[in-house]
Design a protein that fits this description.
With about 120 residues, this protein is of the alpha/beta class. About 45% of the residues lie in helices and about 20% in strands.
């Protein structure tokens, strides 16, 4: 097992967590490469971080239905494989920047969603 910050810090925090929140901008209909790198490392720890609750929060520039479809499907597939209890998603299409997100209802939706957990 490769001992780096992902293993010694991030994976350890996932193992201790009750809820795993995946948060990412949408790049070409997918999670960022940085988050995908961490997720790829779950493989060696599948049994250590399965059975958790999970959520997805994502924002993307385009407001077409296609924008969120594949990221949502990837998350659903990952949650199923990891035996996570999917608690839901807050997807923010049409939000290319933090400033754009701030002008929408999505921050309030995310807040209310978090409070409901």
């Amino acid at each position: 097992m490769h001992k780096d910050d992902i293993e010694t810090e991030a994976i350890q925090k996932f193992m201790e967590a009750d809820v795993i929140a995946l948060v990412s901008p949408v790049y070409y209909f997918a999670l960022t490469a940085q988050l995908k790198t961490v997720i790829d490392r779950f493989y060696s720890r599948t049994y250590d971080i399965n059975g958790k609750q999970s959520v997805l929060l994502a924002a993307g520039r385009s407001d077409t239905p296609l924008t969120m479809r594949s990221i949502a499907k990837h998350y659903e597939t990952l949650a199923g494989y990891m035996h996570w209890q999917d608690r839901g998603m807050v997807l923010a299409p049409g939000c290319p920047t933090r400033e754009a997100v701030a002008k929408t209802e999505y921050p309030q939706k995310a807040f209310e969603f978090g409070m409901s957990l």
